[in-house]
Amino acid sequence: MEMKLDPPWQRALEQIKTWARVNSPWVIHYNSGSCNGCDIEILATLTPRYDLERFGIKLQGSPRHADVLICTGPVSLQSRDRLLRIYEQMPEPKFVVAVGSCGISGGAFQGCYNVVGSIGDVIPVDAYVPGCPPRPEAIIHGVVALLQSLQKKDAAPQSVEE
Amino acid sequence: MDAQQIGKGKFVVPIGPQHPALKEPGHFEFTVDGEIVTGASVRLGYVHRGIEKGAENRNYTQAMYLMERVCGICSHVHATAFALGTEKLAGITAPPRAQAIRSLVGELERIHSHLLWLGVAAHEGGFDTLFMYSWRDREVVMDLLEGLTGNRVNYSVNVIGGVKVDVDDAQRDAILKGVDFLEERTHHYIKIITTDETLLGRTVGVGVMTKEQAIELGAIGPTGRASGLERDVRVDAPYAGYKDFPVRLVTDEAGDLQARFVVRMKELLESYRLIREILDHLPTGDLTVRAPRRIPAGETVSRVEAPRGELFYYIKSNGTDMPERVKIRTPSLCNWASVINLAPGYKLADMPMILSGIDPCFSCNDRLIKVNDRSVSQVWTWEDLRQHGIEYYR
Which of A80, B52, B183, B265 has its CA 20 to 30 A from that of B5? Predict the structure, then answer.
């Protein structure tokens, strides 16, 4: 549902939405074929030493409540459809962070018969975090860099061609 | 999570593959009658990548990196199993110091894995405080692993013929200090899991598996040992440094979820003892022996004890620098039968705890299984497998 207001009010509404989104993005995590290394590092960023929640970031269970999809691993044939489905279920505007070397290029699994490719081959990705696995600091840096870029520009709606 | 009605008063509750409880994809269907689960099934394969076939196109050094990435939690044991098997084929033995360091890193990895599991299992039970505390303490062992190997996960310690990293005095002191701290914390956790009323309510008498059931269902690792099954590859068939540094078996008779907590925590204490002993009596000498690039033809089996149970590698060489066949059988796969068979009769709310009770690792267990018709012999090529994958998941 899109609200249509007079241009100045509409602009103000967009600014409020961006402010809210940047201050408290809700994150969903999906493993599309990763070795688990990145997943435990994502989990580690939520725990006391790194504490991602101090940026207002909350890990969410349902794609329908999420603003940011953190995705790990190469995309396997079986999880490809599920990844697309999760992405489609997320409300606009939505952002994707690909964590780990596999998410960027397929990594060590490049060319394996059951691997479709990188996450960018299946859904549009906004931020990449390299590393095998990336350190928790790097994951935090990636998410914060994404949030800072949202402050600068109003996010354009995206959709996936299928 | 939605429910679909089948028959009268019975629902099937599908969970996954993306779900808030576990961080890895696995699909479960529980048939429930009211609150009570009457049937369970599991669908795996979301993280099947084709590693075994991939290893056939890589030489032994490259395959080692691939094997480490079978599983990010227990990457070191995979590499150890592969290295031990390949060394057996090549007819070489890694020097004693290398073997001891393999065991040392293996035990540090077991500590990180068990603490990780304690947190995740507590989280499934709704005890997030314990989750946060155990993961905070886990950072201590992550620091030790990083200091020793340079990476927090996927340490890449093994090479064929030895290890890459050495332990110097500063690292030795750091490890001993870290282990002292963790031992104190582990005693605290044992006190919590045996006395905390909320946790006892979720674990005592839940998911009970008798010793007979454990044998019948093929349960291994801490899951089996919590049911009194005396099986541990480190004890039964010592490999690497465990020949010189014997392990004391930890078992429990109760067979319920609480026993699985207790066994894993007591295994931590055993790991601390073992680490101290290895560091006190670390053999001197070289770290590697020279390994041939082409491995002589032959086939071998190598078994190691992963944090979740027995890990099994079959390696066949055809005399070139690439393996002809690598078959991996991981512990999580063996323990699934216990979950599916134990789940009926318990409440749906207990399912996350019972699931996490076996410490499932999906990236380990998503392997292609083809039941072979003995009359025909078939060799799968890369293209065949790719086509099979596309057809299967269509």
Answer: A80
